[in-house]
Amino acid sequence: MTPGVIMGVDLGPSQDAAASPDDLAHAVAEVVSHCEPADHMANAVIATHTRQVGIPHFVVSVVWPAATAGPDPATLIRGLVAEIGNALPATSGIVITWPGGPDPATAGDRSAVVGAWTAVTRAAAGDSGRIAVFPGEQRLRGVMSVAEVVAASGIDRVADVSGSVLDDSVLIDTMGFVRPRWRAHRMVLQIQRGPDGLAIPFEREHMLR
Amino acid sequence: MSALDPPRRAARIGCWLAGDHHVHTQYSRDGRHTILDQATRARQFGLDWMVVTDHGGPEHVRVGVIRTAPDIAAARRALPGSLLFQGVEWNIPGAEHGTVFVAPGARDVEVLQQFERDYDGVVRDAQAWTPDNEALAVAAIGWLGQQVDTRRVADALMVANHPARQGLDSPHEIRGWRDTDPRIAVGFEGAPGHQAAGLPRSVGPGENRGYYGRDRGTNPNSFLPYPQEAYRTWGGFDWMTATVGGLWDSLLAEGRQWSITANSDSHEVYLHTADRPAGRDDESYFEATGFYPGAVYDGVPNPTAGDFWPGQYSRTVVGATRRSYRAVMRGLRDGAVWVDHGHLISALDLQVRSCAGDAAPATLGSTLQVAAGAEVEIVVRIDCARLPHAGGEIPRLNRVDLIVGAVDVRGPDDRDAFTAPHTRVVRSWDTSGAAGTIELTHRLGRVDSPLYVRVRGTDARFSQVGALGAAIDPHGPRMDIPGDSDPWLDLWFYSNASFVAVTR
After folding, report:
1. How far is B173 from chain A (nearest CA, A)?
2. Cross-strand pairs, B66
3. Distances in whole angstroms, Cα of residue B64 to Cα of each of B71, B127, B295, B351
4. A chain contacts of residue B206, beta-carbon cutoff 8 Å
5. Do the beta carbons of residue B459 and residue B490 sit within 8 Å?
6. Interface touch B130/A54, C-beta < 8 Å
7. Band of the pLDDT at A208, cuts 50, 70, 90?
8. Which of these, B5, B10, B3, lies nearest to B371 by C-alpha position?
9. B479 by DSSP, 3-state: which?
10. Cα distance between residue A95 and residue B376, in whole Å
11. A130 touches chain B (CB under 8 A)
12. pLDDT value, residue B504
């Protein structure tokens, strides 16, 4: 996918230490959806990236594909600035870039803006980031073939841990929890062998004790 | 001159003592059993020693660490001969958990409590992976060494637990703990506990074996260069140990001992019938009192629990000069240790000797000193299992692998290195049908530079090519399948390392 508008958000070190990457991605989705028409959000891909400067934490990227209608950056940043100190912590920093645009729009805490830049550059490179919000996520439920997963969602390919791409007919028990990663600008779901001859996503929802 | 630093002299091994250094009780937020409960089971399953390691935290530092001591004393009286240590499962600042324990003595509780108060990552709110918290972990190990030097305690050890579970223990942190005081920080779990967690959903928890972590990118404190497969167990063992030429080997390749262990991490046992007493079973009760009342047994087996009793499945077997607390600790430190699952073998003796017979042979964990060019051979003697394990079968040792690695005492330039490029499986023996005592010999040939050797064996029902390729490990353990990893069908033993030092 060729990225169009890319937004980075760092909520700062004050973010709740117990917040999962999903919590953060959904919190950002919620705020952005207040600033944007719903049809824009339908195309957005929201991922988390690790920032290990100071206290390690996640930063969030939101990518709109170049090929689809994206937000108007000026309107978006105005809306988000109004949320800093409200829906977003006062420690937040935001960066928005867009193709062919002038200087990127930035707002918020200076150190967090650097973190937001980390998210933007990682998303622009398209090679890292755990994706929590993406088109079709809610259609990935139950047992589906690789072909069905790709057809029903923004996922571009399904691969095993070694990176080998799976045959279209392989069956995956989605277990209702699918979190692909950015690899070479493609959304790749990594799977592993599961019980009963089915594949299952490598990341499962509740693993840690 | 090329020699190990320091050359190690073998302690005469008088007995092999099986144990478990990772056991939880009613003094853990997620525990339930009394110390006597766990110690009795450990004894039933043939363990000689056990360490009580409840989680460090505000309740434990206030209540648990104090109340543990008389409970251990009572359990020692009830189970004469069992060596029961007091320890803590330390939240290592900036990293994973680790077992910390001390030799019994007049001031052991005082030392453990002070340690937890000043250095536990939860008590100190120091879990984030920051330079300050890394330094706090290093200071903690230094402090433990001082307690030994000033004779407040006779001995103290730290072993890192489930090191690859979430990718939190970076290679440079592990090296840092070891180098701060190698008498104290002596190893990591080669295999984590919770070995029943991968049983199929139809009969068990249906989770990942060992309750290992989710994936990269789910904890911001993880060491990012660890690959995805690091977050899984392999044949029940942690990736750092299971990968031939991996992180464990990269430590041994420095010519320094680093012990691996295998433990139950027992909180809640597969098919247990033990409940916390009604009304006093939730975390608010624990937070108020610092413990749960001992378990009540309601007779209803719980198949969703993923642990075993101490000794039921996992064992850490230590070569000790005699049956004593301090001898167990010394054996662990020296690496006179082998570990197994499902009681796969009954005894293991590893000897590395000069064919000319001109030097004392090295036993498990020690160093053979030879002149450059000496012919060296390795003799592995194994007593096969004669009795069924707790899963009901007599375990069969079907293959034994000999692993040899080159030693470079300068260590890697990169303190975050996690591969040992000159380590590989050099010999595999098909031992199917073996019974009684078997002896396996391998001639290394002329030795011109220092090296280390270790062995592993398996029932060989599952294997796959090792992570670093077939030339390194053609038949390594299989990456465990979530919800399809019956622990009784995939058994391995691992020895620790012996070294060969070469003088020119």
Report:
1. 15
2. none
3. 10, 21, 16, 43
4. 195
5. yes
6. yes
7. low
8. B3
9. strand
10. 64
11. yes
12. 83
Residue pair A204/A177 in contact (Cβ under 8 Å)? The answer is yes
- Dihedral over Cα of B439, B238, B87, B53: its sign: negative
Distances (CA, A) of B250 to B114, B182, B411, B475: 34, 16, 8, 20
Half-sphere exposure of B477 (CA within 13 A, CB side): 30
Q: What are the structure tokens assigned to B122, written together?
A: 């939860």
Would you call A52 and B220 a contact, using CB atoms and an 8 Å cutoff? Answer: yes
Q: What residues are paired with A45 via a beta bridge?
A: A63
Q: Which residues contact B41 (CB under 8 A, 6 or more apart)?
A: B309, B310, B311, B312
Residue B278 tokens read as 């009604």
- ipTM for the assembly: 0.92
pLDDT value for A102 = 78
Q: Do the Cβ atoms of B353 and B376 come closer than 8 Å?
A: yes
How many helices (DSSP H) and strands (DSSP E) are in chain B?
10, 20
- Judging contacts by C-beta atoms under 8 Å, the chain A residues touching residue B222 are 50
**Rounded to a whole number, what is the distance in Å from the CA of A66 to chain B's nearest CA?**
26
More confident residue, B302 or B5: B302
CA distances from A120 to A54, A61, B316, B385 (A): 19, 6, 48, 58
Percent with pLDDT over 70 in chain A: 96
Chain B segment 199-258 residues within 8 A of A by beta carbon are 200-201, 206-208, 211-218, 220-222, 224, 228-229, 232
Q: What is the pLDDT of residues B478-504, one digit of tens each?
A: 999 999 999 999 999 999 999 999 998
Pairwise CA distance, residues A90 & B43, whole Å:
57
Is B220–A161 a contact, with Cβ atoms under 8 angstroms apart? no
Residue owning tokens 């051979």: B377
pLDDT tens digits along B178-214:
999 999 999 999 999 999 999 999 999 999 999 997 7
Cβ of B128 within 8 Å of Cβ of A21? The answer is no
Quick check: A204 and B214 CB within 8 A? yes
Which residues lie below 8 Å from residue B237, measured CB to CB, with a gap of 6+? Answer: B190, B191, B262, B477, B492, B494
From the list A50, A128, A200, the residue facing B220 with the nearest CB is A50
pLDDT in tens, B96-144: 999 999 999 999 999 999 999 999 999 999 999 999 999 999 999 999 9
* Cis geometry, peptide bond prior to residue B6 (ω within 30 degrees of 0): yes
- Specify the 3-state DSSP secondary structure of B219: coil
DSSP state of B333: H
* Maximum separation of any 2 CA atoms in chain B, in Å: 71
pLDDT of residue B213: 75
Question: Residue B358 pLDDT more than 90?
Answer: no
Task: Quick: pLDDT tens for A162-203.
Answer: 778 889 999 999 999 999 999 999 999 999 988 888 999 999
Q: Which positions ≥6 away from B331 have C-beta within 8 Å?
A: B11, B13, B17, B318, B319, B320, B321, B337, B365
